Amino acid sequence: MKQYQEMAKEELLKEKESLEAAYKEYQKRDLHLNMARGKPSTEQLDLAMDLLNNVLDERDIIIMSNGLDARNYGGLEGIPEAKQLIASMVGAKPDQVLLHGNSSLNMMYDTVSRAMTHGICGGTPWMKQEGIKFLCPAPGYDRHFAITEHFGIEMITIPMSPEGPDMDMVEKYVNNDPTVKGIWCVPKFSNPQGYVYSDETVRRFANLKPAADDFRIFWDNAYCVHYLYDEVVEIPNIMDLCAKAGNPDIVFEFCSTSKVSFAGGGIAGMVSSRKNIDDALVSMAVQTISHDKINQLRHCVFFENGKKIPEHMKKHAEILRPKFEAVLKALDRDITPVGAGTWVKPLGGYFITFETMDGCAKRTIQLAKEAGVTMTGAGAPFPYHKDPKDSCIRIAPSYPHLDEIVLAADIFTVCVRLATVEKLLEA
Ligand code: PLP
Questions:
Q1: Cα(279) to centroid of ligand 1, in Å?
Q2: Torsional class of 408: left (φ above 0), alpha (ψ -120 to 50), beta (otherwise)
Q3: For residue 141, which atom of ligand 1 is closest to its CA?
Q4: What pLDDT sits at residue 201?
Q5: Contact status, residue 140 vs residue 381, Cβ threshold 8 Å
Q6: At what angle do helices 361-370 and 402-426 cross, to 10 degrees?
Q7: Which among 6, 186, 215, 370 is placed 20 to 30 Å from 145, CA to CA?
Q8: Which residues are within 8 A (CB) of 419 and not within 5 positions of it... i.e. 6 or more apart?
Q9: Cα–Cα distance, 218 to 141 (Å, whole number)
Q10: Which atom of ligand 1 is nearest to the CA of 263?
Q11: 220 CB within 6 A, ligand 1
Q12: How far is the CA of 222 from the centre of ligand 1 (A)?
């Protein structure tokens, strides 16, 4: 078939007519499909049910290696075995881990909030400094941007490439502008593009020379063990590289088991230098006496302090892979022949990012909605919800059943094609 860009007006009009007919057939079916939710399916959650089944019935496992009774108050940093579990996920050392409650996002929010009100490691509170900024590699995770927007921190968009954020731009801002206080990063299987930062990108991050003493990299390693295939993808250990570069304190690395065990019912932690951890503990000690150590313990027993996580994640991959492949197959079949968009096949993570022709994302999402397929809102992966090219669509295939994904993907490709043809006819 001819690429849309090469079609004459009459050909486009004919294509529009046939796409509209197909679209109307879908509309008649009163469907309610959803490819917006980046959450695990019920089948994936079922994999961890033994977390709730008698894993804590023996009294002696309740006393931790440091003598702490997991049922009682205390142990604000988390139980040693659970620190080991989080450390194993990101290749850190247990003493670099500070555990929190059930959510890494909550920990990121608290970290920004603490910096705003109390400063970082004795520095001036961010809210008392004029015009502070965060760098936001985009497309990125909308909830990161929501945190910085919530605190009134100006967000600067940094373009992404398959190697990671544009490091020339990152270095220019961080090394010269003391009002730049942080950067949001999802280094492995980035949300939403599934990119993995290159070794060179990680090395350049570690070697930044921040103009501000209180600049920090928010290294959200949310998808560190979330592979779709047997191919294991490693990124360099940012903490080690930073220490070597004489920057031991510039990273807050976040990680959780939300998409390993139960979403919102897992354990979360931050990996950082002792100096940063001690600084965070000052406020945390006011906030709570201790987090849910019983849940930490349950995870340690079920996952053998982390040893069983790789094997467990293979079971997740078996459920997720066919769903991702169903979407990719539909895109290959319907979009490639007409050149109506591009995408990257991810090797892990939770999303596929589709790039429409410029100016077609909003219209595609609207068409999909009106045919019963909910997609993530246009612009969501950008600071202030502004996609400069109106071209980025985040597809989340994890939650619906496979047959729903197949149908939703068929409808999606019709919507993409229709929006593209409409746009070309406008020109
Ligand atoms: N970070 C990223 C990049 C995510 O995509 C998500 C959830 O989708 C989270 C953090 C949330 O993690 P948690 O459940 O630990 O708060």
A1: 23
A2: alpha
A3: 3
A4: 98
A5: yes
A6: 130
A7: 370
A8: 356, 360, 363, 364, 367
A9: 12
A10: 14
A11: yes
A12: 6
Burial class of 59 by CB neighbour count within 10 A (0 to 12, 13 to 18, 19+): exposed
The pair phi, psi for residue 404, each rounded to 5°, is -70, -40
Ligand 1 pocket check for 89: Cβ under 6 Å: no
Rounded CA separation 314/212 (Å):
42
Q: How close is the Cα of 61 to the center of ligand 1, in Å?
A: 30
Cα(63)–Cα(91) distance, integer angstroms: 26
Which atom from ligand 1 is nearest to the alpha carbon of 257? 15
Instruction: Give the span between the Cα atoms of 210 and 183, in whole angstroms.
Output: 11
Find all residues with CB under 8 Å of 369, minimum gap 6, and list them: 375
The answer to whether 252 and 110 have CB atoms below 8 angstroms apart is no
pLDDT means per 10 residues, the chain with 427 residues, are 95 98 97 94 97 74 87 95 97 97 98 98 97 98 98 98 98 98 98 97 98 98 97 95 98 98 97 98 97 94 96 98 98 98 97 98 98 96 97 97 97 98 96
Smallest CA-to-CA distance from 414 within 6, 15, 11, 8 is with: 15
- Is the shortest distance between the CB of 257 and ligand 1 below 6 Å? no
Backbone torsions φ then ψ of 249, nearest 5 degrees: -105, 5
The two structure tokens encoding residue 7: 């079609």
What pLDDT score was predicted for residue 58? 67
Tell me if 253 sits within 8 A of 240, measured CB to CB. Answer: no
Query: In angstroms, what is the span from residue 112 Cα to ligand 1's centroid?
Result: 16
| Residue in the structure block whose two tokens are 């987090």 | 291
Task: Give pLDDT, residue 65.
Answer: 87
> Rounded to an integer, what distance in angstroms lies between the CA atom of residue 6 and that of residue 194?
31
DSSP, collapsed to helix, strand or coil, labels residue 193 as coil
- Give 182 Cα–ligand 1 centroid separation in angstroms: 18
